[in-house]
């Protein structure tokens, strides 16, 4: 009997410890099934701050919302004094948005809106039947713009293998109102109209005046964003810039990934072709006459380039192109690689034509001398 009582007491203590964060730091939200708001918000003063959602990107198979966070009152519509650029997993961001919408609606006396609970169900992989076919659905980044959300279809129950086609399933997620590239204040102001008799107005009659009362409160959106913020590294920032420029979406989303398999193939082809043209040009140059060599050296000196620096320039250009490829600067990499190929090909053709002309002239002279003899 005593053993049973001791076990019950231990179970009660353990349950109390598990629920303690919700009691101390929770905000009485029975819908917080994700346990996101058990952190201590006491050190997070965003009464004058703002949040600026930039993009929805995909990295390593996971969706993130990239945003800037501002704590100062002098952020000038999210244009300065940013705490930094961060990313937050899509699930946490949407849950925080839903909680913010619910609180805004309550403070505004029911004149706002709330995120539909059915939309939140798709934060996790859900089974779905359509035209006698079974799919699994989950909320993700909008593919065509990266500035919104959409329901994606998958073939597996873990929502890791995307279906070949995203069907128009008619699932309404319009209640999930997230405006990207828009500065949103961390404090919502609720405005209530109250009419009263103003006996001191100039008309002296029964005119009414409009009295506006404002209620400010801390937003769960900014607090959650600050608490769950992750560093937006180089790949994250490149993917975000691509969204801002309206770049096309790859199969992996706005992930900031490098060259596609086809792109890598052509990188190899063009790199090998550049090496071939360089070696061919060097071999052809050895056949130059002394006169042509002297003229070429004079042309190089007239351009202000010392001949001994030419190999170093070639090595520098090669290293520069390699760095562009490693940093995934695709446009610049393709531009310089193409330029080098064209330049080397042109130089090789120039040398070859010179050699052919010399051979033709030499053959004509030899033929003329033979005929005269």
Please state the average pLDDT score: 75
Q: Kindly report how far apart the N and C termini lie.
A: 133 Å
- Class based on secondary structure composition and strand pairing: alpha+beta
Counting copies of identical and different chains, the oligomeric state is single chain
- Describe the sheet with the most strands: 5 strands, antiparallel
Would you write up a description of this structure?
There is one protein chain. About 45% of the residues lie in helices and about 20% in strands. It is elongated. A hairpin with a 2-residue loop joins strand 4 and strand 5. Strands 7-1-2-3-10 form a 5-stranded antiparallel sheet. Strands 4-5-6 form a 3-stranded antiparallel sheet, with no helix packed on it. The chain is of the alpha+beta class. It contains 9 helices and 10 strands. Helix 6 packs parallel to helix 9. The protein has helices spanning about 1-25, 90-105, 115-120, 220-230, 235-245, 260-285, 290-300, 310-325, 330-370; strands at about 50-60, 60-70, 80-90, 125-130, 135-140, 150-155, 185, 190-195, 210-215, 230. The model is unreliable at about 1-5, about 10-30, about 190-215, about 250-255 and about 365-373 (pLDDT under 50).
């Amino acid at each position: 009997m005593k053993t049973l009582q001791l076990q019950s007491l231990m179970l009660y203590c353990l349950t109390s410890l598990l629920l303690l964060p919700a009691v101390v730091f929770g905000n009485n939200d029975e819908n917080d099934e994700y346990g996101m708001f058990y952190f201590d918000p006491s050190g997070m003063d965003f009464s004058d701050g703002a949040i600026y959602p930039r993009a929805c990107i995909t990295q390593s198979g996971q969706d993130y919302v990239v945003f800037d966070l501002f704590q100062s009152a002098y952020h000038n519509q999210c244009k300065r004094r940013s705490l930094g650029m961060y990313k937050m997993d899509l699930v946490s961001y949407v849950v925080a948005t839903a909680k913010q919408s619910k609180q805004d609606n309550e403070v505004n006396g029911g004149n706002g809106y709330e995120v539909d609970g059915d939309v939140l169900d798709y934060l996790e992989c859900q089974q779905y039947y359509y035209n006698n076919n079974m799919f699994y659905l989950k909320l993700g980044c909008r593919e065509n713009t990266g500035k919104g959300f959409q329901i994606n279809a998958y073939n597996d129950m873990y929502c890791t293998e995307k279906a070949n086609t995203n069907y128009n399933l008619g699932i309404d997620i319009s209640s999930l109102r997230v405006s990207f590239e828009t500065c949103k204040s961390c404090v919502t102001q609720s405005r209530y109209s109250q009419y009263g008799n103003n006996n001191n107005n100039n008309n002296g009659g029964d005119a009414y005046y409009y009295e506006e009362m404002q209620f400010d409160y801390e937003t769960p959106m900014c607090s959650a964003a600050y608490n769950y913020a992750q560093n937006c590294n180089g790949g994250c920032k490149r993917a975000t810039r691509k969204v801002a420029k309206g770049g096309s979406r790859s199969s992996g989303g706005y992930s900031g990934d490098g060259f596609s398999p086809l792109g890598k193939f052509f990188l190899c082809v063009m790199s090998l072709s550049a090496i071939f043209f360089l070696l061919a040009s060097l071999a052809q140059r050895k056949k130059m006459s002394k006169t042509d060599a002297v003229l070429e050296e004079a042309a190089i000196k007239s351009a202000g380039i010392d001949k001994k620096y030419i190999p170093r320039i070639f090595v520098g250009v090669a290293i520069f192109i390699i760095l562009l490829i490693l940093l995934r600067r695709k446009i610049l990499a393709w531009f310089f690689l193409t330029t080098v190929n064209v330049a080397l090909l042109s130089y090789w053709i120039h040398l070859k034509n010179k050699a052919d002309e010399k051979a033709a002239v030499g053959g004509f002279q030899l033929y003329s001398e033979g005929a005269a003899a």
